[in-house]
């Protein structure tokens, strides 16, 4: 009898869930499509994003670590940089990064433009320096011409380079996921199990940190709120910047948009399986042990967050000239 009533209760819950349509106060909003104010800027930024000549080796572009064929990430625990150097931290996706309140895991860059100057001169990433990278661009007539047209400048500057890259990145949004279609009223866009996953996501409290259009990116939170996170990675989060103990292990909450594509997970890239990442989150952030079934539902929901990926023709880069500094991949 007891089992039966539990069962009926479960069924009723299920039925209610099926009936549940989004209400006006959902803590998650659909992603708006990109608005392109200046297509020429975006096109130039796209070229720069794909141009490996911004690196010392002539081999590493932004797209090497933020591969737009792989959810804007490299699917590695930590990136491989210049001279096969092991990166210190997992590369976050560039998709929807314009929605972040700040850039990097610790938020040390205010916006995309400020961020873009970082990797070019980072000795472990692209290992160039800004002077060299700008010299390379200045030696290429087609780039000179493009910057002249788009930015009305005679000399290419770092400011214009990072601006163009940022303008391109702002177009890397992923609207129209199945979940967004559900939010907009298409009740058939997600399944019963996926809907139950969303309801769990809200009721157990994931949504406290993963909310807004990007389901993250809008706050810094402690990793290991209830139970400490064990890792060999030395990153300390915001404390690395402020030196304050309260900021230890405070990281920018990652977006969960396209999370099915951006494995492995967490700042150390230690978890490859989304089910495991959900289990870790429930235990460490909320003190909850979820059943295998519930983990499956939450994961099923998370997979409905994969949206339309940016799609465009691969940019054809202008050729180098005899004046272009030659790449030095091996020193
Ligand atoms: C060698 C790999 C590598 C290359 C090349 C690289 N990045 Fe990154 N990128 C990373 C890593 C790793 C991080 C995270 C670093 C951190 O938070 O400390 C990151 C962070 C970012 C972020 C912040 C995302 C967020 O959610 O905080 C953006 C945006 C970004 N990179 C764009 C670029 C652009 C534009 C270029 C080219 C100019 C570039 N990256 C080149 C590895 C790379
Ligand atoms: C107290 C805030 C908080 C809560 C609650 C929370 N998260 Fe997180 N979440 C974070 C932070 C911070 C990170 C990044 C941690 C790190 O990388 O060290 C993260 C990372 C993740 C990641 C990995 C994303 C990636 O790209 O690496 C997933 C998946 C995730 N959370 C899902 C969930 C789910 C599901 C729940 C509920 C069971 C949840 N989170 C609850 C703050 C939170």
From TrEMBL:
<feature type="domain" description="Cytochrome c">
    <location>
        <begin position="192"/>
        <end position="306"/>
    </location>
</feature>
<dbReference type="GO" id="GO:0042597">
    <property type="term" value="C:periplasmic space"/>
</dbReference>
<keyword id="KW-0732">Signal</keyword>
<keyword id="KW-0249">Electron transport</keyword>
<dbReference type="Pfam" id="PF03150">
    <property type="entry name" value="CCP_MauG"/>
</dbReference>
<protein>
    <submittedName>
        <fullName>Cytochrome c551 peroxidase</fullName>
        <ecNumber>1.11.1.5</ecNumber>
    </submittedName>
</protein>
<keyword id="KW-0575">Peroxidase</keyword>
<dbReference type="Pfam" id="PF00034">
    <property type="entry name" value="Cytochrom_C"/>
</dbReference>
<feature type="binding site" description="axial binding residue">
    <location>
        <position position="281"/>
    </location>
    <ligand>
        <name>heme c 2</name>
    </ligand>
</feature>
<dbReference type="GO" id="GO:0020037">
    <property type="term" value="F:heme binding"/>
</dbReference>
<feature type="binding site" description="axial binding residue">
    <location>
        <position position="66"/>
    </location>
    <ligand>
        <name>heme c 1</name>
    </ligand>
</feature>
<dbReference type="InterPro" id="IPR036909">
    <property type="entry name" value="Cyt_c-like_dom_sf"/>
</dbReference>
<feature type="binding site" description="axial binding residue">
    <location>
        <position position="210"/>
    </location>
    <ligand>
        <name>heme c 2</name>
    </ligand>
</feature>
<keyword id="KW-0479">Metal-binding</keyword>
<feature type="binding site" description="covalent">
    <location>
        <position position="209"/>
    </location>
    <ligand>
        <name>heme c 2</name>
    </ligand>
</feature>
<feature type="binding site" description="covalent">
    <location>
        <position position="65"/>
    </location>
    <ligand>
        <name>heme c 1</name>
    </ligand>
</feature>
<keyword id="KW-0349">Heme</keyword>
<dbReference type="GO" id="GO:0004130">
    <property type="term" value="F:cytochrome-c peroxidase activity"/>
</dbReference>
<dbReference type="InterPro" id="IPR026259">
    <property type="entry name" value="MauG/Cytc_peroxidase"/>
</dbReference>
<dbReference type="InterPro" id="IPR051395">
    <property type="entry name" value="Cytochrome_c_Peroxidase/MauG"/>
</dbReference>
<dbReference type="GO" id="GO:0046872">
    <property type="term" value="F:metal ion binding"/>
</dbReference>
<dbReference type="InterPro" id="IPR009056">
    <property type="entry name" value="Cyt_c-like_dom"/>
</dbReference>
<dbReference type="GO" id="GO:0009055">
    <property type="term" value="F:electron transfer activity"/>
</dbReference>
<feature type="binding site" description="axial binding residue">
    <location>
        <position position="82"/>
    </location>
    <ligand>
        <name>heme c 1</name>
    </ligand>
</feature>
<feature type="binding site" description="covalent">
    <location>
        <position position="62"/>
    </location>
    <ligand>
        <name>heme c 1</name>
    </ligand>
</feature>
<keyword id="KW-0574">Periplasm</keyword>
<feature type="signal peptide">
    <location>
        <begin position="1"/>
        <end position="19"/>
    </location>
</feature>
<dbReference type="InterPro" id="IPR004852">
    <property type="entry name" value="Di-haem_cyt_c_peroxidsae"/>
</dbReference>
<feature type="domain" description="Cytochrome c">
    <location>
        <begin position="40"/>
        <end position="148"/>
    </location>
</feature>
<keyword id="KW-0560">Oxidoreductase</keyword>
<keyword id="KW-0408">Iron</keyword>
<keyword id="KW-0813">Transport</keyword>
<feature type="binding site" description="covalent">
    <location>
        <position position="206"/>
    </location>
    <ligand>
        <name>heme c 2</name>
    </ligand>
</feature>
